[in-house]
Amino acid sequence: MDSNNFNFEKVMVVDDAEIDRFLAKKVLTKHAFAKEVLPQDSAMNALSYLSENQENKEALPDLIFLDINMPKMNGFDFLEEYKKLPESVKKKCIIVMLSSSLLPEDRELAMNNPYVCQFLNKPLTADKLKDVANP
Amino acid sequence: MNVTLAQLLNKHFAGNDVTLPSNLLQELDMLLNEAAVAGPETNKDGREAGTPEELYHILWETLNLIGTEASPLIGDDETSHSIVNAADMLNAGCRNIVAAEQQTLRETVHLKTIQSVAKAGSWDVPATGDLSAVQNYWSDELFHLLGIDPSMTKITYEQYIALVHPEDRGFMMEEVSRAYAETGRYDTEYRIIRDGDIENPRTVREIAEVVRDELTGEPVSLIGVTIDITEIKRAERAIVEANTELRTLFNTMNEVFFSVNVEQDKMLQISPACMRLYGYDPETFIKDPYLWFTLIVDEDKKKVHESNLRLSLGENCQVEYRIRHRNGQIKWLLTRMRPTLNVAGKLIRIDGISSDITERKEAELALANSELKLRTLLENSNDAIVIINEDLDYTFATESIGRIIGYATEEFVGTSMLNYIHEEDRGFIAHSLLSLNTKPEEPLPFEVRFRAKDGHWVWLEGVATNHIKEAVIRGYIVNFRDVTDEIAYRRELEDANDKLKRTNTELDRFVYSVSHDLRAPLASILGLIEFTASETDDEDIKQNLSMMKDSIGKLDIFILDILDYSRNARLEVKRTPINFSDLLTDIRNSLKFISTGNSNVEIRINIEEDGTFCTDRSRIIIILNNLVSNAVRYFDPAKPAPYVEVTVVARADGALIGVRDNGIGIHKDYHPYIFNMFYRVSEKSKGSGLGLYLVKETVEKLNGDIQFTSTPGVGTEFKIYLPNP
What we know:
Distance between the termini of chain A: 17 Å
Distance between the termini of chain B: 147 Å
CATH class of chain A: Alpha Beta
Largest interface: A-B, 20 and 22 residues
Structural class of chain A: alpha/beta
Shape of chain B: elongated
CATH topology of the largest domain in chain B: Heat Shock Protein 90
Helix content of chain A: 25-40%
CATH superfamily of the largest domain in chain B: Histidine kinase-like ATPase, C-terminal domain
CATH class of the largest domain in chain B: Alpha Beta
Number of strands of chain B: 22
Mean pLDDT of chain B: 81
Low-confidence stretches of chain A: none
Oligomer: heterodimer
Structural class of chain B: alpha+beta
Number of domains of chain B: 6
Radius of gyration of chain A: 14 Å
Number of helices of chain B: 21
Low-confidence stretches of chain B: 1-6, 11-20, 38-49, 70-75
Strand order of the largest sheet of chain A: 2-1-3-4-5
C-alpha cells in the first residue's frame, strides 16, 4: 500500500459507535490516509466543531466520514444543518457517507445530497479508502 | 139518344115551312151522338176533333141558335121543353167527356209516378232503319234516366246510340237487329253514359218487343221498357263481394268456425283454419265428432265440459283452455259458443268460434309470473323501496320496511320522512334532495341514521332518484337497506386497519432498525477482523480470523435476505423505467463489497434494451443480486475460467432475463426444492436458504415467471420473464 497516494490533512469521523471510531482511526492511521483523524461521537458535536472553526481553515477537516444511523441527530439531519454553514466550510470539506445501511433509499437519499460525494458501506477497508482517494 | 134528337127535331119542325137544311140536321145529329159517347177514344179513327170544351161550346151555341129561331115559329111549351131537354142531355154528355178526360189525366200521372219509382222508362220508336228517325213516344222517366231534359222532346236513334257506353254499343245494336229479324223481342243489359261521365255509367235493363203490321207482318215499331238497374247491380255486386269475402274469411281466418248438431253428435261444419289450430283438416273433424274434445289437455277438459252445461241452459259462453296440437305443441284456445234450443228447450245446435290465444296467454302468464316474481322479490328482499313526495311525505313503501325499521306500510305511508331521520343527518338529506332537483338524472347514494319503530337507530344505506316529473311516481324513489351491522363491522374493520397500519409501520421500523442494529456491529467486527489480520503475520491467527470473517459474512447475508424479504412482502410495487446497464453495474460493484464476493468469477453482462421496460427497481435488484451472488458464491473451482453471464432483453412487451454460470450446478434430486424457504442444498451451502425463495417470491410479485436448468459440473441457468404492465 502506497501511503503517498493519500494527502488529506485532517479527516473527521462522525459516528456514535466507539468501535467504529476506533476502527476508522486505526485503518486511517495505518494506511496513512490522513495526518490527523478527528473523531466525533455525535452529529451535534461535529457541527459545533465545524461551526466553531469556520474561520479557522487549518482546523477544518478535508474529508468527513459520516454515519447515518445515530441517536438524536442522524446523518441526514447533520446534512440539513451542514447546509447552513458558511461556504468556507462547505468548500473545504468532502463528505463521504459511511454506513452499515444497505437500504437503496438511504443510498439514494445520500447521493442526491449535493454535499455528499460518496456512499460507502461499513466496514472501512483499505480498498474502500483507495476508492475514496481515486474516485 | 141521337135517334131521340132526330125524331125530336123532325117532329119539332114538321109542318113548318121553315125547314132545316138536311145536312145541318145530319151534322148536328152526329155531333150529339159523339158528344154522348165522348171519351178518350174520341179520336180513335184518327180524325181531328178538338177539345171537349170546344165541342161542347159549339153544340151549345147551335142549340141556343135553334131554340131562338124556333121559338117564334113554334112557340109552344112542348117544343121548347124538348130543346131544353136536349141541351141538358148534351150538357151531361159533355160532362162525361170531361170526366173521361180527367180519368185519362189521372192514369197518366199514375203511370209517370210508377215509372219514376221503378226508374223505368217506356218508349215507342218507329221500325225504320233510318238512324235519324225520331222516336214515337218516350216517357219522361226515360229522359230522366238518360239525363236529358224532357223539353228536348225529340231524339233520334243515332243520338240515343251515342249515349250508350262505347263498349256496349255493338251488342246492343245486334240485339235490336236480331229482334227485328228473328226473335221479335229482346231483354238485355247495357250501360249508359249520363252527362258524359264515363266513370260512372248507369246500368240499364231493356225489354222490348217488335210491333208488326197485322196484315203484312212487317215491323211497324219497337216498344220497350228501359229500367235503371245500376243500384240493383251495385247491390248485387256488393252481395257477391260480401259473400266472397265471407267465404275467404271462413277459409283463411285464423279463427275456427264450427257448427255442431248436438242431437246427432255431428260436426256440421268446421272452417279450414282447424288445420292451423289443431293440425287436423275439417274432414277428420267431421269424421270423428269427439276429436275436438280428445285434443283438449286433461286438466282443462272439466272446464270445457262445464261450459257445455251452460250451453244446454241456453246461455252463450266462452271458455279458455289448452289443446294439444297434432305436432305436440300445447296451444291456448278461446272458444265462444252460441247454443240453439228447440221449442222444447233442448239444445240442438252449437255454433262457435275458436281462436288461438297462445301468445296472449303466454304473455299474460309471463306477466303474471314476473309480477309475482317482482312482488315476491320486493316483499322478501332485505331492501326496501319507498316513494317520497315533494313535501317529503312517504307515499309508498314496500312491506319489507317492516323487517328493516319495524313499521307496517299502513302506519308509515303518509308520515313525513323528517320524523325519522337523525337530526345530524337532516342537513345532509336536505342538501342531497336539493342537488337531486338540480341534477334529476343522477342517482344519489346516501347513508343515514333512521329511527326504527322500537326507538333505536338503524343505519340505512341506499340510493335516491328523482321521479318528481313522472306522473305515476311524483316523487323520489328511494331504496335502502339496513347496514347497521355493516357499519359497525366497517368501524371495527377501520379500527383494525388503523391498528394494523400502525403495527405495520412499527414492524417496518423494527425490521429496519433490527437489520441496521444487527448489521452495524457485524460491520464493525468485520472491520476489526480485517484490520487485525493485516496487523499480523501469524498464519494460525490469520486462519482463525478468516473463519470468523466467513461466519460473520453468512450472518450478514442472512440479515440482508430477511430485510429483502420483509421489503418485498410489504412494499407496494412501484414501477419505473429500468436501465439494466446501470443497475447491473451497481450490482457488480456492490458485490465487490459484500464480503463473500469472489473476484475470480467473471461477471459478463449482455444487455439489449430500449428503455421502455418498467418494473419495480428495488425488486429487480433483489432478483439479480441473489442470482448473481449465488452464481459467484457457488463457482466451480475446478473450472479454469469461472463466469456468470447475465443476459437481458428488455422491451415494451416485457423482459427476459437469463443468469447462466458454469458453477458447481445443482443435482436434479434437489430441483423441486430449491425455491423453498430456508432450503439449503447441502451443509456446504453458505447462504441463508432464503435467497432463491426470495427470488421466486419477488418474481411472482411482479407477475413474472421463473424457470431454471442445472447440471452438476456444468452449471446453472435461470430464465426469468417479467411482464411490462
